[in-house]
Design brief:
two-stranded parallel ribbon, seven-stranded parallel sheet, alpha/beta, 10 helices
């Protein structure tokens, strides 16, 4: 899958499951559950013990899944993630060396930012998307809407506190995609291995994204 195809698929789906859990087994269960629920994307964070092994296993077992690496804070980690099969790199903050590494290696990258200055720096460095994190504590969808005024050309990913009550409004505000963690891969569902609960949550979030996009299109003259 090419860089362009990965970028397009992320835009089409609009939901980025962030798998930030305490064990490799939980990570595999969560990623597989969202995949079977119709979201062929999973961000495996490097805070998971053996995170690169999880990426490798998912990439081999589900070649159609876009498996990426999260919380990538240096180029050594980035290189190990790519070797394991990661199709995108992301972080919670702006790590320019990781962005430069991704651009050089033709892999999709979206660093975390918060301020307008960071958004500019990330975009100028060659990021495919710019993640706004943490969104909810800093104005939520209103902040995304405010950022889209000076940066209409920058595809923003809203992440950090996105839930069922706010997902629709984030897309309406102009978010290209939503990064969702525990609100999608619920801790209770992980403990009980309740794949159906994750399927239902995935269905809801996908529906919200689709409905909000349809409303935005309808609002255009």
């Amino acid at each position: 899958m090419t860089k362009s195809e990965v970028r397009t698929r992320i835009e089409q789906v609009g939901i980025l499951p962030a798998v930030r859990v305490s064990s490799p087994d939980d990570a595999l269960f969560g990623a597989e559950a969202v995949y079977h629920a119709g979201i062929p994307i999973a961000e495996i964070t490097m805070t998971i013990p053996g995170g690169t092994k999880v990426i490798s296993r998912l990439a081999k077992s589900f070649p159609e899944m876009i498996v990426g690496a999260g919380t990538v804070l240096d180029t050594d980690t980035a290189r190990r993630c790519l070797d394991a099969g990661a199709k995108f790199l992301t972080s919670t903050g702006l790590v320019l060396e990781v962005v430069e590494f991704a651009v050089k290696n033709e892999v999709v990258v979206f660093p975390g930012t918060l301020t307008p200055t960071e958004v500019i720096a990330a975009w100028k460095a060659g990021s495919d998307f710019v993640k706004v994190f943490p969104c909810a504590p800093h104005g939520g969808h209103s902040y995304i809407r405010a950022l889209k005024v000076p940066f209409p050309q920058v595809p923003l990913i809203a992440s950090g506190g996105v839930n069922q009550l706010t997902a629709f409004n984030y897309i309406l505000a102009g978010a290209a995609a939503l990064g969702i963690g525990g609100e999608l891969i619920a801790p209770q569902a992980l403990r009980e291995r309740n794949e159906q609960q994750i399927h239902e949550l995935a269905r809801r979030f996908l529906g919200m994204a689709k409905e909000a996009r349809a409303q935005k299109t309808g609002d255009k003259p």
